[in-house]
UniProtKB/TrEMBL annotation:
One of its GO terms (cellular component) is plasma membrane. The chain crosses the membrane at residues 28-47, 67-91, 112-137, 171-187, 246-267, 279-298, 305-324, 330-352, 364-390, 396-418. Keywords: Cell membrane, Membrane, Transmembrane, Transmembrane helix. The keyword Ribosomal protein does not apply. Coiled coil: none annotated. This is MFS transporter. The keyword Cell membrane applies. It comes from Nonomuraea turkmeniaca. It is a multi-pass membrane protein. Gene3D superfamilies: MFS general substrate transporter like domains.
Amino acid sequence: MTVRRFATVTSTPGGGTRVRRVIPGAEYLRVFAVAEFSGLWAGLLLSKAGDQLARVALAVMAYDRTGSAALTAVVYGLTLVPALLGGPLLGWLADRYPRRELIVSCDVGRTVLVALMAVPGMPLPLIGGLVFASHLLDAPTRAARIALTPDVLPAAIYPTGVAINGFTSQLMTLVGFAAGGVVVALAGPSPALAIDAATFAAAALITTLTVRRRPAAGGDGPARSWWSSTNAGLRLIAGTPSLRNLLSLALLAGFHVIPEAIAVPYAHSLGLGDTEAGIMMAAMPAGTLIGVFVLTTFVPARSRLLLMAPMAVLASAPLVVALLQPGFVMVLVLWGLAGVCTAYQVSANAEFVRIVPNEQRGQAVGLASSALMAVQGLGVMLGGVLVDWAGPERGLAIAGLAGLAVSVPPLIGWFRVLARQMGPGRVLTGARPD
């Protein structure tokens, strides 16, 4: 058996070089050795698990009580809409108040709100209001957690920490619904919601015990109004070429989400059933998991910045092959490859947060997260319109071609940013921007 050995070459003070052997995956151990990150990660894991469990429980509860698919969809939608509104409305809280205390307060608030949902006989309209309020609190929690990550991790392993969080989110998306379905089937919706409340309580406790208190990033100066803070965040992103191009690359997710949105009609057009449609829906998230693992384990951080923009472009390319009407297995391969390419989002996220000034990090992250949610929602709607107009294969191919075309400007813009920051020669050698 051949064992591959990996190494990094670093300069010595005397002008020579030193080779340091690196065990693949060792950075993961270094990241989890940081107790504060482990606490933040555990909180993320519990929150994601609770969110997925709640979505299943609420959908089942709504349908059992009303028998209406439309009302069930409305209740389910109340778990998604707050994520779009919460970033601009509440992201600034992560800059104005201490981030650990904000995370704990929001988790405690969600514990109470979800516990009220679990009360047997709670009227459905009231549950809808509680759902909306609970998920609205997720926005400042998410902004604070993301903004805290660069503070708790050394710069050298920060990108790996972001990758771990992205991997965790993708994994929970994949397995959360299935696990939630089992829990709801065995225990029922109300007990499942009680379990969800317990996950938020546990997340609050873990964060309190593992993350040390820090002062508010915005300092003790005069408080900005919501509008002033939002305006400042928008100006920062629009006026900083690196942030503007990173966000543009991230927003290409609006095209990359389309295959999952049209998987059911696409499967039916191939003469397949709902089981195959479900497998197709899982192909891209599974590919993303693989891509994130490979990218963060075997590719140096500086090289990820160079690969980021090409991967963003290539993520749309497999969708164009739908014109050739590939079979089920080839569709899985193509969508899986597209998912592998979307792993660039982890690098874009890490670099975006790294560049943003600490005192504006929460607001900028909140705005970017909401924009990402918005384009994904638009992508889902666009996919449906294209399928109705052109059919699944041609509709997906059109979306892929559009994604390729739209991705060219941020591709060029990002390489201009790298060339300006590092110089063309350093871009070619993969040096990290200053």
